[in-house]
Design a protein that fits this description.
alpha+beta; 2 domains; Yope Regulator, Chain: A; 261 residues
Length: 261
Amino acid sequence: MTSFEGSYLGASDKISPRAIMECKICWTPYDPSEGDDSRQVLPGTPFLALPDDWSCPGCNAPKAQFLVREDPGNAEEARIEAQTRALVADFTEIFHAKMRDLPMVNQALHVQAVGFRRHEAPELPGTLGVLIAPWFMNLVLIPDQPLALKPGEKLTLTFPSGAYEFIFNTREQTGDYLACALFSPMGDFTSQLQAVEVAHAVMSELMKSENRAETDRSAEIRARAEGSLTEVAQDEAEPSPPEVPTLIAPTRRALLTGGQG
Protein backbone atom coordinates (compact mmCIF):
# COMPACT_ATOMS: atom_id res chain seq x y z
CA MET A 1 0.00 0.00 0.00
CA THR A 2 1.34 3.42 -0.94
CA SER A 3 1.80 5.82 1.97
CA PHE A 4 1.65 9.60 1.70
CA GLU A 5 3.65 12.01 3.82
CA GLY A 6 1.37 14.27 5.81
CA SER A 7 -1.83 12.49 4.83
CA TYR A 8 -3.55 11.06 7.91
CA LEU A 9 -0.15 9.89 9.19
CA GLY A 10 0.36 7.98 5.95
CA ALA A 11 -2.88 6.01 6.13
CA SER A 12 -3.96 5.95 2.50
CA ASP A 13 -7.11 4.00 3.36
CA LYS A 14 -8.52 7.23 4.81
CA ILE A 15 -8.28 9.00 1.46
CA SER A 16 -11.55 8.90 -0.45
CA PRO A 17 -11.81 8.53 -4.26
CA ARG A 18 -12.70 12.22 -4.42
CA ALA A 19 -9.55 13.37 -2.62
CA ILE A 20 -7.72 16.25 -4.31
CA MET A 21 -4.01 15.76 -3.71
CA GLU A 22 -1.20 18.29 -3.87
CA CYS A 23 2.53 17.86 -4.50
CA LYS A 24 4.45 19.05 -1.45
CA ILE A 25 7.42 19.96 -3.66
CA CYS A 26 5.80 22.28 -6.21
CA TRP A 27 2.14 22.37 -5.00
CA THR A 28 0.78 20.97 -8.28
CA PRO A 29 -2.67 19.48 -7.57
CA TYR A 30 -4.17 16.22 -8.79
CA ASP A 31 -7.94 16.49 -9.06
CA PRO A 32 -9.71 13.16 -9.80
CA SER A 33 -12.49 15.01 -11.58
CA GLU A 34 -9.95 16.27 -14.14
CA GLY A 35 -7.49 13.38 -14.40
CA ASP A 36 -4.08 14.00 -15.96
CA ASP A 37 -3.84 14.72 -19.69
CA SER A 38 -0.03 14.49 -19.61
CA ARG A 39 -0.22 10.80 -18.71
CA GLN A 40 -3.56 10.07 -20.44
CA VAL A 41 -5.29 9.54 -17.10
CA LEU A 42 -9.03 9.85 -17.63
CA PRO A 43 -11.23 12.20 -15.58
CA GLY A 44 -12.79 10.34 -12.68
CA THR A 45 -9.62 8.37 -11.84
CA PRO A 46 -8.99 8.44 -8.03
CA PHE A 47 -5.49 9.26 -6.88
CA LEU A 48 -5.07 5.80 -5.34
CA ALA A 49 -5.87 4.23 -8.74
CA LEU A 50 -3.01 6.00 -10.51
CA PRO A 51 -0.18 3.73 -11.76
CA ASP A 52 2.67 3.19 -9.30
CA ASP A 53 5.08 4.91 -11.68
CA TRP A 54 2.87 8.00 -12.02
CA SER A 55 4.68 11.18 -10.98
CA CYS A 56 3.86 14.86 -10.50
CA PRO A 57 3.25 16.63 -13.83
CA GLY A 58 4.92 19.73 -12.43
CA CYS A 59 8.20 18.40 -10.99
CA ASN A 60 8.19 14.59 -11.47
CA ALA A 61 8.01 13.92 -7.72
CA PRO A 62 6.66 10.42 -6.90
CA LYS A 63 3.15 9.79 -5.57
CA ALA A 64 4.49 9.47 -2.02
CA GLN A 65 5.29 13.20 -2.04
CA PHE A 66 1.62 14.18 -2.38
CA LEU A 67 -0.48 15.54 0.47
CA VAL A 68 -4.24 15.77 0.83
CA ARG A 69 -5.31 19.30 -0.13
CA GLU A 70 -9.01 18.61 0.33
CA ASP A 71 -11.26 15.58 0.36
CA PRO A 72 -14.94 16.26 -0.35
CA GLY A 73 -15.65 12.58 0.27
CA ASN A 74 -14.23 12.67 3.77
CA ALA A 75 -16.38 13.94 6.64
CA GLU A 76 -13.40 15.42 8.47
CA GLU A 77 -12.25 17.24 5.37
CA ALA A 78 -15.77 18.52 4.81
CA ARG A 79 -15.83 19.89 8.36
CA ILE A 80 -12.46 21.62 7.89
CA GLU A 81 -13.62 23.03 4.56
CA ALA A 82 -16.70 24.49 6.26
CA GLN A 83 -14.57 26.04 9.01
CA THR A 84 -12.10 27.64 6.60
CA ARG A 85 -14.92 28.87 4.37
CA ALA A 86 -16.43 30.65 7.39
CA LEU A 87 -13.04 32.08 8.38
CA VAL A 88 -12.43 33.44 4.88
CA ALA A 89 -15.96 34.87 4.75
CA ASP A 90 -15.48 36.69 8.06
CA PHE A 91 -12.23 38.35 7.03
CA THR A 92 -13.36 39.08 3.49
CA GLU A 93 -16.26 40.98 5.04
CA ILE A 94 -13.82 42.89 7.29
CA PHE A 95 -11.70 43.75 4.28
CA HIS A 96 -14.59 45.18 2.26
CA ALA A 97 -16.21 46.94 5.20
CA LYS A 98 -13.21 48.47 6.97
CA MET A 99 -9.82 47.76 5.44
CA ARG A 100 -9.83 48.00 1.65
CA ASP A 101 -9.00 51.70 1.36
CA LEU A 102 -6.31 51.88 4.06
CA PRO A 103 -2.76 52.55 2.81
CA MET A 104 -1.33 49.61 4.80
CA VAL A 105 -3.37 47.13 2.73
CA ASN A 106 -1.56 45.20 -0.01
CA GLN A 107 -3.99 45.28 -2.93
CA ALA A 108 -2.13 42.43 -4.66
CA LEU A 109 -3.41 40.02 -2.01
CA HIS A 110 -6.76 38.56 -1.04
CA VAL A 111 -8.09 36.58 1.92
CA GLN A 112 -7.16 32.90 1.70
CA ALA A 113 -6.94 29.97 4.13
CA VAL A 114 -3.84 27.84 3.52
CA GLY A 115 -2.88 24.38 4.76
CA PHE A 116 -5.64 23.95 7.32
CA ARG A 117 -5.60 20.48 8.81
CA ARG A 118 -6.56 18.51 11.88
CA HIS A 119 -4.33 19.33 14.86
CA GLU A 120 -4.37 16.62 17.51
CA ALA A 121 -2.91 18.20 20.61
CA PRO A 122 -3.79 17.16 24.19
CA GLU A 123 -3.66 20.76 25.37
CA LEU A 124 -6.00 22.12 22.69
CA PRO A 125 -7.13 20.02 19.70
CA GLY A 126 -8.64 21.76 16.71
CA THR A 127 -8.05 22.87 13.12
CA LEU A 128 -4.73 24.55 12.37
CA GLY A 129 -3.56 26.53 9.36
CA VAL A 130 -2.44 29.91 8.05
CA LEU A 131 -4.80 32.78 7.18
CA ILE A 132 -3.59 35.26 4.57
CA ALA A 133 -5.23 38.68 4.36
CA PRO A 134 -4.14 41.84 2.52
CA TRP A 135 -3.01 43.33 5.85
CA PHE A 136 -1.67 40.33 7.83
CA MET A 137 -0.65 36.68 7.85
CA ASN A 138 -1.56 34.70 10.97
CA LEU A 139 -1.18 31.15 12.18
CA VAL A 140 -4.75 30.25 13.22
CA LEU A 141 -6.13 27.50 15.44
CA ILE A 142 -9.90 26.91 15.51
CA PRO A 143 -10.51 24.87 18.68
CA ASP A 144 -12.89 21.92 18.81
CA GLN A 145 -14.75 23.40 21.78
CA PRO A 146 -15.61 26.99 22.78
CA LEU A 147 -12.97 28.57 25.03
CA ALA A 148 -13.64 30.38 28.31
CA LEU A 149 -11.54 33.35 27.22
CA LYS A 150 -12.21 36.99 26.41
CA PRO A 151 -11.11 38.64 23.14
CA GLY A 152 -7.54 39.81 23.52
CA GLU A 153 -6.53 37.20 26.08
CA LYS A 154 -3.28 35.37 25.31
CA LEU A 155 -2.43 31.68 25.35
CA THR A 156 0.92 29.98 24.69
CA LEU A 157 0.74 26.76 22.65
CA THR A 158 3.59 24.32 22.12
CA PHE A 159 4.50 22.76 18.77
CA PRO A 160 7.47 20.58 17.80
CA SER A 161 9.40 23.71 16.79
CA GLY A 162 8.74 25.54 20.06
CA ALA A 163 6.26 27.62 22.06
CA TYR A 164 4.15 30.28 20.35
CA GLU A 165 1.91 32.93 21.81
CA PHE A 166 -1.63 33.21 20.42
CA ILE A 167 -4.38 35.74 21.00
CA PHE A 168 -8.01 34.76 21.39
CA ASN A 169 -10.86 36.25 19.39
CA THR A 170 -14.25 35.28 18.09
CA ARG A 171 -16.18 36.00 14.89
CA GLU A 172 -19.81 35.63 13.91
CA GLN A 173 -19.26 32.88 11.34
CA THR A 174 -15.98 31.35 12.54
CA GLY A 175 -16.72 31.29 16.24
CA ASP A 176 -13.76 31.07 18.63
CA TYR A 177 -10.24 31.06 17.22
CA LEU A 178 -6.65 31.72 18.29
CA ALA A 179 -4.21 33.70 16.12
CA CYS A 180 -0.42 33.97 16.20
CA ALA A 181 0.83 36.92 14.16
CA LEU A 182 3.45 36.15 11.49
CA PHE A 183 3.47 39.25 9.25
CA SER A 184 1.84 42.66 9.49
CA PRO A 185 1.67 44.65 7.32
CA MET A 186 2.06 42.62 4.12
CA GLY A 187 3.91 45.13 1.95
CA ASP A 188 6.89 42.85 1.30
CA PHE A 189 4.75 40.36 -0.64
CA THR A 190 4.56 40.92 -4.39
CA SER A 191 1.88 38.31 -5.19
CA GLN A 192 -0.68 35.96 -3.69
CA LEU A 193 1.42 33.01 -4.88
CA GLN A 194 4.40 34.21 -2.89
CA ALA A 195 2.26 34.61 0.24
CA VAL A 196 0.81 31.10 -0.22
CA GLU A 197 4.29 29.60 -0.60
CA VAL A 198 5.38 31.23 2.65
CA ALA A 199 2.22 29.98 4.38
CA HIS A 200 2.99 26.43 3.27
CA ALA A 201 6.54 26.85 4.57
CA VAL A 202 5.18 27.96 7.94
CA MET A 203 3.05 24.83 8.25
CA SER A 204 6.01 22.64 7.34
CA GLU A 205 8.63 24.28 9.58
CA LEU A 206 6.24 24.55 12.53
CA MET A 207 6.17 20.77 12.91
CA LYS A 208 9.95 20.19 12.74
CA SER A 209 11.58 19.58 16.11
CA GLU A 210 14.99 20.55 14.71
CA ASN A 211 13.71 24.14 14.59
CA ARG A 212 13.32 24.23 18.36
CA ALA A 213 15.74 26.61 20.05
CA GLU A 214 18.04 25.32 22.76
CA THR A 215 16.12 27.39 25.26
CA ASP A 216 12.40 27.96 25.59
CA ARG A 217 11.46 30.93 23.41
CA SER A 218 8.04 31.65 24.91
CA ALA A 219 9.52 34.43 27.07
CA GLU A 220 11.12 35.97 23.96
CA ILE A 221 7.79 35.89 22.15
CA ARG A 222 5.99 37.47 25.07
CA ALA A 223 8.64 40.19 25.45
CA ARG A 224 8.63 41.16 21.77
CA ALA A 225 4.87 40.98 21.36
CA GLU A 226 3.83 42.57 24.66
CA GLY A 227 0.99 44.93 23.93
CA SER A 228 1.12 44.25 20.20
CA LEU A 229 -0.92 41.06 20.28
CA THR A 230 -3.80 42.89 21.90
CA GLU A 231 -3.67 45.28 18.95
CA VAL A 232 -4.10 42.33 16.59
CA ALA A 233 -7.57 41.59 17.95
CA GLN A 234 -8.45 45.26 17.57
CA ASP A 235 -6.86 45.45 14.12
CA GLU A 236 -9.01 42.60 12.87
CA ALA A 237 -12.18 44.28 14.08
CA GLU A 238 -11.36 47.91 13.38
CA PRO A 239 -9.21 49.75 10.77
CA SER A 240 -5.53 49.80 11.75
CA PRO A 241 -3.32 52.87 11.84
CA PRO A 242 -1.08 53.22 8.78
CA GLU A 243 2.01 51.95 10.62
CA VAL A 244 1.67 48.46 12.10
CA PRO A 245 4.80 46.78 13.52
CA THR A 246 5.98 43.29 12.62
CA LEU A 247 4.78 41.21 15.55
CA ILE A 248 7.39 38.46 15.47
CA ALA A 249 11.13 38.96 15.42
CA PRO A 250 12.70 38.52 11.96
CA THR A 251 14.81 35.59 13.22
CA ARG A 252 11.69 33.84 14.50
CA ARG A 253 9.85 34.53 11.26
CA ALA A 254 12.76 33.25 9.18
CA LEU A 255 12.77 30.06 11.21
CA LEU A 256 9.09 29.44 10.53
CA THR A 257 9.13 30.34 6.86
CA GLY A 258 12.31 28.56 5.93
CA GLY A 259 13.80 31.86 4.83
CA GLN A 260 11.06 32.46 2.24
CA GLY A 261 9.56 35.49 3.97
